[in-house]
Amino acid sequence: MQYPKVLALAAAAFAALASHPASPAPAPVPEEIPVALLVDLTTGQTLYAREAERRFVPASVTKVMTAYTAFKLIEQGDLHPGQRFQYTPELEDEWYAEGSNMFLRAGEQPTIGQLLLGITTVSGNDASVALAIAATGSLDNWLELMNANAEELGMHDTHFGSANGYPDGGQTYTSARDLALLAEAMTQDHPTLYRRYFGHRTLRWRDITQANHDPVTGVVAGADGIKTGYTRESGFTFLGSGERDGRRLVMVLAGAPDGQTRDETAREFLEWGFSDFEQATLVPAGVEVGMALVQDGAERSVRLRTANDVIASLPREESDDRWTMQVVYRGPITAPITAGDPVARLQLSVDGQLALEVPLEAAETVPRANALQRVLNAVRKWTS
Questions:
Q1: Do 171 and 306 reside in the same domain of the chain?
Q2: 3-state SS, residue 51
């Protein structure tokens, strides 16, 4: 149900942005890119989505989960960046110059940190497999960890059959929404390691210097990664992120027909998210926004309030008649209810599509009804 107070507060927030001269432009994503997603992690809001739940082959973007899995092990103390791994002749035979490569040779002893840079900077297929074996003893053990992490993050449309995204007959797949969850966990849960290992423009190993193919870092202000991918099966893919003025955005493009289209779109898409939207507080924390029905309570309803500031990224100069806010809950809510309990949600939608959802809490305590109150409640129910 919609509540006038919520809508009035939202309208005031829109009005506060009306003095800005910029006007929102359509998302700069051409039709030939079938999958696109842009999320503002600061608010949790989806700024643009096209086929966000569609499964696709991620190619080398798979390596983001390999890096994330290593970050978790490092933070837990089970892996150390200075730990060395002796690269074997068997690994050289299988992976030397096989696709994107760090060009490791048998007998070399790279550190875990060097392997991570080989993965995040030059997309080393060899470095990914070496890291997996160094950390867990086998690829099977590593894949088990990768898939466990995906499940823990709620990546329900994802499965990993390789550590590096090399074609594996369709065992490895994901979705844009799942990759956004992974990027959020990477940047928010491991920010120090993320800054240490992502965003480097080149990598030198022995006498070989290679460039990072990331199309946004160093080009779009605030951009700092994350990973490109390509196979003939997957097309051209990119998972990217950047932070500007306290806002962190994550973007996904998948299935682009060529590298130039992907790279140009990635730059324009990320810049669009930063430049054409501005954060505003729609409803301050602690504001009562409506009521919810109560079952078996001393009162028939409970007042609802915002648990935190409701902050959204709004298009500059956008008309507020495209935006709606409503309170939703599974109800009636069964008593007893304690003030501060999360009991409902406030949803912000654009053109009928959900863009943002935040929790609402009980603004008061409602104890369970006593015997007399239960009788009165039953009478009211029968006569209503």
A1: no
A2: coil
User: Which residues are CB-neighbours of 169 under 8 A, at least 6 positions away?
Assistant: 161
Q: Tell me the Cα Rg of the chain.
A: 25
Tell me: pLDDT of 19 over 60: no
Q: Which residue range is the domain that position 234 belongs to?
A: 35-275
CB distance 178 to 156 below 8 Å: yes
Domain's final residue, options 218, 251, 275: 275
Is the distance from CB of 269 to CB of 239 less than 8 angstroms?
Answer: no
Same domain flag for 99 and 11: no
**Is 291 in the same domain as 305?**
yes
The 10 Å Cβ neighbour count of residue 48 is 18
Per the rule left: phi > 0, alpha: psi between -120 and 50, beta: everything else, 290 is: left
Mean of the per-residue pLDDT values of the chain: 90
Q: What percent of the chain has pLDDT over 90?
A: 74
- Kindly give, in sequence order, each residue whose CB lies less than 8 Å from that of residue 244, ignoring residues fewer than 6 positions away: 221, 222, 274
Q: For the chain, what percent of residues have pLDDT higher than 70? A: 88
Cα 245 from Cα 25, distance rounded (Å): 21
* Cis, bond preceding 332 (omega within 30 deg of 0): yes
Q: How many angstroms separate the CA atoms of 146 and 125, rounded?
A: 16
Instruction: List the alpha helices (DSSP H) in the chain.
Output: 4-16, 63-76, 89-95, 112-122, 125-136, 139-152, 176-189, 191-197, 259-275, 371-383
pLDDT at position 262, please?
A: 98
DSSP bridge partners of 50: 36
Residue 109: inside a domain: yes
Please, which residues have CB within 8 angstroms of residue 112's CB and are 6 or more apart in sequence? 70, 74, 79, 80, 81, 82, 83, 84, 85, 131, 134, 135
